[in-house]
Design a protein that fits this description.
heterodimer; A: alpha+beta; Rossmann fold; OB fold (Dihydrolipoamide Acetyltransferase, E2P); 2 domains; 6-stranded mixed β-sheet; binds adenosine-5'-triphosphate; binds magnesium ion
Chain lengths: ~375, ~300
């Protein structure tokens, strides 16, 4: 059982240019942690530092409470799967998997049984004598995973392992990775660009931007209560809708105004525990699935509004139709059941579930959170 | 026929089209002709001459393989061939080792790599004549290294390879290696740069040491580069004429004679054109013996790929 702690880790490739800043991550034993973030935010750099392939500029990395910050890669017992698979082109599949074991001076017979075991598990046992160039992308991917599995390391690192596969194979391999994790129960750190991969695989997700972790939490937490505008816009597809609003007050408390295509106003109340003041500019975030066709049984719920909206464009995806419309003159995407039959150029009655609305501070991008004092008051 | 009508109109168009098609061939024709006559023509001519008894002037009376038999009994030819074997093996071997080694060192993301690369590559820009002359001075006991050591007070130091018939061939190797290993380095450096860095990272995680990574994974991946380097180096070895002329002129005696020098001496200064032609044909056979299998494997590889 292996836990991995990353304490205040920073990285500077050049003096003055900070790539990673004060990264703190506690990865529990057996946990599947996923790092997501835009290109160039330092995900690979962090992985390479965990693996020992890149110097750590500051901070500490602990594996089971042992300091491995400056240990050579071979001494860490960590395996990594690379985006490009990084198979040894001159060796057969068998030798690719066996190489690490040979270097660790395993007896020949043990190597043989281990390679066979891994190859069976990944269904590549019929490919063992082939060279990597003679394999398909998916098969190469399996070999790369096999190479990582064979040593039975303490921690697996995956750096975008599926991003070179076509969409169908990616979904298949995603399931396979998940099964593998459930079966082996080893600690995994996994980098991906694909947020569906992140949502489906992770126990916890760390969202990074410009070398800083923006939020660390379970997929549900990240999706439902993002810390800031960046996380909110990065996670979720199609992305969350953002509508600038101004806080107003009436006798029921603070509210913001939304208007539909007919100019009808919908007053969305702010929860009393949010630290907002009258006249304050905010950004209201609403996921596409909070704007739907009218479901009469839900209309009676609090914070549910109905309005009339002009449809500008539709994108049928199958299970639902993504529909472009305007709220407060802002383009907004709604997720509508195909049965509601949204058509471009036609007006449509829609329902807004404002209970899912989030509010963000425009300058800092932080989400307004219930402050404990106000809750008491 | 309906279609026949537009034909008159399209005639000038056809003319220009066929001219356009023929133009590349027309432009290439003179150089092709030149190559045919001056390379393959003279090759054939030399081949024929090698079967005659030509001495000072070519004579076209066919006399069979006599010149080849004379050649094989010629002491100097045998020395030249032995020298070539020694020179070729050591020159190619050391150049490869040194070139690969420097390339690997330069590949470790060191500072000032660009400057070092240029320094190592520079000898390649110098002609073999200059290399030979420079090394002649450096190795000359009364001018170069030995004198320097003596002047510095190390009076027992001797380095007389240039004048020692048993060692003189090694001075050729030193000079040729100096000239060519930078080129080998450049070839391998380019090859190393082409290797995916994550392969090396993966091997590091597998626990392999740097030397092991290079020996087991990186260098085997560079097999095509080895082939090309050996091809180029063996060409240089077999053709090397200018270097020997400038450095030792085949001496002392004929202890550093090489086939190219032998051929030149017999064909042009000793009035034995027939024998010279025979030795030239032997050299051609040597080059072909290396080139043909290489081309064969290359072309076959291409077709399969
Ligand atoms: N060897 C290096 N020298 C200098 N800067 C580097 C080096 N490697 C990466 N960087 C910089 O560090 C930053 C983070 O790079 P990194 O490869 O970790 O990004 P990433 O999050 O993995 O991106 P991607 O999703 O595209 O793989 C980038 O701005 C990159 O330019
Ligand atoms: Mg990356």
């Amino acid at each position: 059982m292996t836990s991995l702690s990353i304490c205040n880790v920073g990285k500077q490739y050049h003096k003055g240019a900070t790539t990673l800043e004060n990264i703190n991550l506690e990865i529990r034993s057996g946990e599947f942690l996923i790092l997501v973030g835009p290109s160039g935010c330092g995900k690979s750099t962090l992985m390479n530092m965990i693996a020992g392939l890149e110097e750590v500029s500051s901070g500490q990395i602990l594996l089971n409470d042992h300091d491995i910050t400056h240990a050579p890669p071979a001494a860490r017992d960590i395996a990594m799967v690379f985006q490009s698979y990084a198979l040894y082109p001159n060796m057969s599949v068998y030798d690719n998997i066996a190489f690490g074991l040979q270097i660790r001076k395993w007896p020949k017979s043990d190597i043989e049984t281990e390679v066979q075991r891994v190859a069976k598990m990944l269904q590549i046992d019929h490919l063992l004598s082939r060279k990597p160039a003679q394999l398909s992308g998916g098969q190469q991917q399996r070999v790369a995973m096999g190479r990582a599995l064979a040593r039975r390391p303490k921690v697996y690192l995956f750096d975008e392992p599926l991003s070179n596969l076509d969409a169908k194979l990616r979904v298949e391999m995603r399931t396979e990775v998940k099964k593998l994790h459930q079966r082996l129960g080893t600690t995994i750190v996994y980098v991906t660009h694909d947020q569906i991969e992140a949502m489906t695989l992770a126990d916890r997700i760390a969202v990074m931007k410009d070398g800083v972790i923006q939020q660390l939490g379970t997929p549900q937490e990240i999706y439902q209560s993002p810390n800031n505008l960046f996380v909110a816009s990065f996670i979720g597809s199609p992305a969350m809708n953002f509508i600038p609003v101004t806080v107003e007050r009436n006798d029921q408390g603070l509210f913001v105004q939304l208007s539909d295509s007919g100019g009808q106003r919908l007053n969305v109340p702010l929860r009393a525990d949010l630290p907002a003041t009258v006249g304050q500019e905010l950004i209201l975030g609403l996921r596409p699935e909070a704007i739907t066709e009218v479901q009469p049984h839900r209309l009676s719920q609090a914070d549910t509004f109905q309005g009339q909206f002009m449809v500008e464009m539709t994108e049928p995806t199958g299970p639902d139709t993504l529909t472009l419309l305007r709220i407060n003159q802002r383009e907004v995407t709604a997720r509508i059941a195909p049965q509601a039959n949204p058509q471009a150029g036609h007006s449509l009655a829609l329902m807004l579930d404002a209970s899912q609305a989030l509010f963000f501070e425009p300058s800092s991008g932080e989400r307004l959170r219930a402050s404990p004092q106000q809750r008491i008051a | 026929m309906l279609l026949a009508h537009p034909q008159t109109a399209s005639r000038p168009w056809r003319w220009s089209l066929s001219l356009e098609r023929a133009l590349p061939k027309l432009v290439l024709a003179p150089s092709l002709l030149l190559a045919l006559v001056c390379i393959y023509g003279y090759m054939a001519w030399t081949g024929y001459i090698s079967f005659t008894s030509s001495s000072f002037l070519p004579n076209y009376e066919f006399t069979g393989a006599g010149q080849y038999l004379r050649l094989l009994e010629n002491d100097r030819w045998l020395v030249a061939c032995k020298n070539l074997a020694l020179f070729g093996v050591l020159f190619i071997g050391i150049s490869l080792l040194l070139g690969v080694f420097i390339a690997i060192l330069l590949d470790q993301q060191i500072r000032a790599e660009g400057a070092l690369r240029t320094i190592y590559l520079y000898p390649m820009a110098i002609s073999f004549i200059v290399t030979g002359t420079a090394w002649k001075w450096i190795l000359n006991p009364s001018l170069g290294l030995e004198k320097l050591a003596h002047d510095l007070g190390w009076s027992s130091f001797t380095f007389d390879w240039l004048t020692n018939p048993d060692k003189a061939i090694y001075t050729l190797i030193i000079a040729a290696v100096w000239q060519s290993s930078g080129f080998v380095m450049a070839m391998f450096l380019a090859g190393l740069r082409g290797i995916d860095a994550s392969i090396i990272k993966a091997a590091q995680l597998d626990g392999a040491s740097k030397p092991r990574i290079y020996l087991r994974i990186v260098l085997p991946c560079l097999r095509p580069v080895f082939f090309s380097a050996i091809m180029v180096l063996s060409h240089i070895a077999i053709k090397s004429f200018d270097l020997v002329t400038a450095l030792t002129a085949g001496g002392p005696g004929y202890s550093t004679d090489l086939p190219a020098l032998f051929m030149y001496a017999h064909a042009f200064t000793r009035g034995q054109i027939g024998l010279g032609a025979a030795s030239a044909m032997m050299m051609l056979a040597g080059v072909l013996a290396i080139l043909v299998p290489y081309l064969y494997s290359e072309l076959r590889g291409k077709r399969h790929a």
